[in-house]
Amino acid sequence: MSQDKVTRQTFDEIMVPNYAPSQFIPVKGEGSRVWDQEGKDYIDFAGGIAVNSLGHAHPALVEALTEQAKKLWHVSNTFTNEPILKLAQQLIESTFAERVFFCNSGAEANEAALKLARKYARDHFGPEKNEIISFTNSFHGRTLFTVSVGGQPKYSEDFAPLPGGIHHATYNDLASVRALISERTCAVIVEPVQGEGGVLPADPGFLEGLRMLCDKNKALLIFDEVQTGVGRTGELYAYMHHNVTPDILSTAKALGGGFPIGGILTTSNIAASLVPGTHGTTYGGNPLAGAVAGKLLEIVNTEEVLEGVKKRHHLFVEGLNAINHRYNVFTQIRGAGLLIGCVLNDTFKDKAKAFTTAAEKEQLMVLVAGPNVVRFAPSLVITEEEIAEGLARFERAVASVANS
After folding, report:
1. What terms describe the molecular function in GO for this protein (predicted)?
2. Where does a domain end: 257, 278, 300?
3. How far is CA 207 from CA 222, 383, 386, in A?
4. Which residues are annotated as a binding site for pyridoxal 5'-phosphate?
5. Which of 27, 119, 170, 228 is deepest in the core (most CB within 10 A)?
6. Residues 323 and 376 in one domain
7. Is 164 inside a domain boundary?
8. Bridge partners of 248?
9. Could you list the pLDDT tens digit for every one of the 404 residues in the chain?
10. Are 325 and 293 found together in one domain?
11. Which one is catalytic: 119, 129, 253, 351?
C-alpha cells in the first residue's frame, strides 16, 4: 500500500468503522477557514465540536506550542512542570476552584469527577453512599462509566453489563430529581446546557434547585462544562450565569484550543480524597498542553473576547431567524453564546444530517446534536465577515433541503 497519497477511501480501507467522516479531508486551517486536499475553502461553524475556540492555527497558540516544544514535552506525573502549574493558578484565580486535576479529554475529566465523588462519599459517609443521578439525553463521555452515566441508551446498551448505582432524571424537572435523590446519593451530574442532547439550556432556577437538593442530601453537585466551558457561553464558565456554584466542574474541549487537555476544578476539602495512588494519567498535565492552554486562557478570559461572544450570538440568531422566516424549517433556535441549536420542525424530523451534508456541498462545516437539531459551535473570535458568508452558505444548504 502506497503511503504517498491518502484519500477519503483510505479511511474506509484501513480505519475501524466507528466513524463516518465527511467526504473531504481538511489539510489546512487559518482562523475560521479550512482548505481540503483539492484547495477548496470551507467556513468552519463546527469548531472541532466546540474545541477550536480561537479558530485554526492561532498565532499566539502556535508560538506557545513551538516555544514549549523546544524546551520540554513530557516528564510523566512522577514530576510536575512549570506550564501546568501556571495554568492551574490561572484557573484557580478565575473560578471557584481551590484545586485542579489535569487529564487529556472530557471523558477523562468526567471519569475523574465521578470517581472523586464516590471516593469523597466513601471517605465521609461510608460505602453505601454511592448512587449517582444524571439526566436523560445527557452526554458525559465514552468510557464505560461515563457512557453509563450519560442518559442516551444508544451509546451504552451494546456494552452491558454496565456499572450500577446510576439513575436518570428528567432535565429541567426538579420533581423528577426529588423523586430519585436520597441519603444514598453521592452526586448529581448535570450539563448547564445539554450539548449532544440537543443544545438545551437549563431553565431559570433549575440549577439552583439542584444545588439545594444536593445540599439537603449531602451530595456533591458536578457541572459537566466540557462543552460549555472556556468562554463558549459568554462567561468563562457557564455556572457564572447562574446563582450557583458546583462542587466539581469538568472542563476540556476549548481549554486547549485543539491541543488535547481536560481537567476538573474543585475545592481543597473534596480534592483531599484523591490521595496518591487513587487516580492518575500518563499524559495528563503535560508541559505542551499546559503551555497552549495557559496562553489560550489568557486570551479568552478577557472582557473583549467574552463580550464578543455575546455579540456574535446575536448575529447568529438574527441570521438564523431570517433564514427560518424564508424557509420555515426550525421550531426553535436556542442555546447560549456560541453554542447554538436549531430544532427541526416535524416536516424535517430526523433529517439533521441532511442539513450538514447539504452544508458540506456549500463548503460549510456544521454539526448535529441528535437527529433533530443542527448545531453551531464556531470559534469564539470568528469575524463578522465569516459569520455573514457562512450564514449565506447555510441558507443555500437549507434551500436545497427544503426544496428537495
Report:
1. transaminase activity
2. 300
3. 11, 33, 34
4. 106-107, 139, 224-227, 282
5. 228
6. yes
7. yes
8. 222, 266
9. 455 789 999 999 999 999 999 999 999 999 999 999 999 999 999 999 999 999 999 999 999 999 999 999 999 999 999 999 999 999 999 999 999 999 999 999 999 999 999 999 999 999 999 999 999 999 999 999 999 999 888 888 889 888 999 999 999 999 999 999 999 999 999 999 999 999 999 999 999 999 999 999 999 999 999 999 999 999 999 999 999 999 999 999 999 999 999 999 999 999 999 999 999 999 999 999 999 999 999 999 999 999 999 999 999 999 999 999 999 999 999 999 999 999 999 999 999 999 999 999 999 999 999 999 999 999 999 999 999 999 999 999 999 999 98
10. no
11. 253
CATH number for 279: 3.40.640.10
Q: Are residues 343 and 237 in the same domain?
A: no
Q: Are residues 181 and 201 in the same domain?
A: yes
- 224 labelled catalytic: yes
Respond yes or no: is residue 173 known to be catalytic.
no
Task: List C-alpha distances in Å: 53 to 206, 221, 314, 379.
Answer: 28, 26, 18, 5
- Same domain for 33 and 88, yes or no, is no
Query: Cβ distance 367 to 374 under 8 Å?
Result: yes
Of 24, 45, 135, 139, which is the active-site residue? Answer: 139
Number of domains in the chain: 2
How far is residue 369's CA from residue 358's CA, in Å, rounded to a whole number? 16
Q: Are residues 294 and 224 in the same domain?
A: yes
224, 316, 348, 351: the catalytic one is 224
Alpha helices in 226-331 (DSSP H): 268-271, 287-300, 303-327
Both 329 and 389 in a single domain?
A: yes
Instruction: Indicate the annotated binding residues for N(2)-acetyl-L-ornithine.
Output: 142, 281
* End-to-end Cα distance, the chain: 40
- Assign 167 to helix, strand or coil: strand
Q: Residue 153: give the domain boundaries.
A: 72-300
Tell me the C-alpha distance between 58 and 48, whole Å: 14
Residue at 91: amino acid letter: L
Residue 135's DSSP bridge partners are 169
Pairing of strands 99-103, 166-169: unpaired
Binding-site sequence positions = 106-107, 139, 142, 224-227, 281-282
Task: Say if residues 250 and 106 touch (Cβ distance below 8 Å).
Answer: yes
Is 246 found in the same domain as 103?
A: yes
Amino acid at 210: L
| pTM, rounded to two decimals | 0.95
139 annotated active-site: yes
